[in-house]
Amino acid sequence: MISKRKIEKRMRMKRNLVLVNTIVKLKKENPEVAKILAGPRKKAFKINLEELNEKIGNDSGVLIIGKVLGTGDIKKKAKIVAWSFSKEAEAKISKAKGEAILITEEIKKNPKLGGMKIIQ
């Protein structure tokens, strides 16, 4: 577990205001996700739809702390929450009748990001 002080230190180095505001909101509610978002960009998580399709299982909601890329196809209808999506990934998810939602939008409805399987 990372301390809130360390998250703040990492956050000061960030220049993206949307990212900083998201980390601030999550720091109290979900420090695990805040820690990962506050980490260096080089360690950012990226996943293809093909890999994601295997990891979803029977879960209705999946939280990806990173970017979803469009390689492969998704066959399951699921609510996928991520920091960002490629255009191709968004199109394929909506074609499969799933939902592609940004973390910033989901925080407004579900501040604790509860009830979702975290994939990282």
How is the topology of this model organized?
Blueprint lengths: L3 H9 L4 H13 L1 H8 L6 E4 H8 L4 E9 L9 E7 L1 H9 L3 E4 H7 L7 E3 L1
Parallel strand pairs: 1-2, 2-3, 2-5, 3-4
Helix pairs in contact: 1-2, 1-3, 2-3
Your description of this structure?
This protein has helices at 4-12, 17-29, 31-38, 49-56, 87-95, 103-109; strands at residues 45-48, 61-69, 79-85, 99-102, 117-119. With 120 residues, it is of the alpha/beta class. The protein has 2 domains: 1-41, no CATH class; 44-120, Ribosomal Protein L15, Chain: K, domain 2, CATH 3.100.10. Strands 1, 2, 3, 4 and 5 form a 5-stranded parallel sheet that branches. The chain is globular. The two termini are 16 Å apart.
What shape does the CA trace take?
A: globular
Percent of residues in helical segments?
40-55%
Give me the Rg, rounded.
14 Å
Overall structural class, as computed from helix and strand content, comes to alpha/beta
How do the helices and strands follow one another from N- to C-terminus?
A: HHHEHEEHEHE
CATH topology of the largest domain: Ribosomal Protein L15, Chain: K, domain 2
- Number of strand segments: 5
Task: State the separation between the terminal residues, measured CA to CA.
Answer: 16 Å
Determine the number of helices (DSSP H or I, runs of at least 4 residues): 6
CATH class assignment of the largest domain: Alpha Beta
Proportion of strand residues: 15-25%
Low-confidence stretches: none
Architecture of the largest domain in CATH? Ribosomal Protein L15, Chain: K, domain 2
The biggest sheet amounts to:
5 strands, parallel
